[in-house]
Design a protein that fits this description.
Layout lengths: L1 H24 L8 H8 L12 H26 L3
Helix pairs in contact: 1-3
């Protein structure tokens, strides 16, 4: 179970890296509906009016994914047929 939660945390960190690369490589035009996907996959982006460092966002998003992963893994173990 610890390995799976670690994988969830790694995916959360990877999401931040990929969104950072995408946003920095696109022109400064409004991204429109892309922000909806950003808010769903990186919830700390909802607080975009605050100045957060890249590493802080990376840590918070990884922790968020780890918590979601822990909840889903505990539900999976609970409902797993014996």
């Amino acid at each position: 179970m610890k390995l799976r939660i670690g994988i969830w945390m790694g995916v959360g960190a990877l999401v931040v890296v990929l969104w950072t690369l995408y946003v920095s490589s696109t022109p400064t035009t409004p991204l429109g509906n892309v922000w909806t996907l950003v808010y769903l996959t990186c919830p700390i982006a909802l607080a975009h009016h605050h100045a957060f460092s890249f590493y802080f966002v990376l840590l918070i998003n990884a922790a968020t994914y780890a918590l979601v992963g822990a909840a889903l893994e505990s539900m999976r173990r609970h409902y797993k047929p014996a």
